Amino acid sequence: MREGAEVLEADRHGDKVLRLADGSILKIFRRKRLITSAALYPYAQRFANNAETLAKLGIPVPRIIAVGRIQEIARDAVHYEPLAGKTLREMLRAGMLPERKRELKAVFTRFVIRLHDKGIYFRSLHLGNVVCTPEGELGMIDFSDLRIHHWPLGKYLRARNMRRMQGIADEVDWLDLGAIVSGRMPDAGAGN
Question: Which domain of life is it from (predicted)?
Answer without folding.
Answer: Bacteria
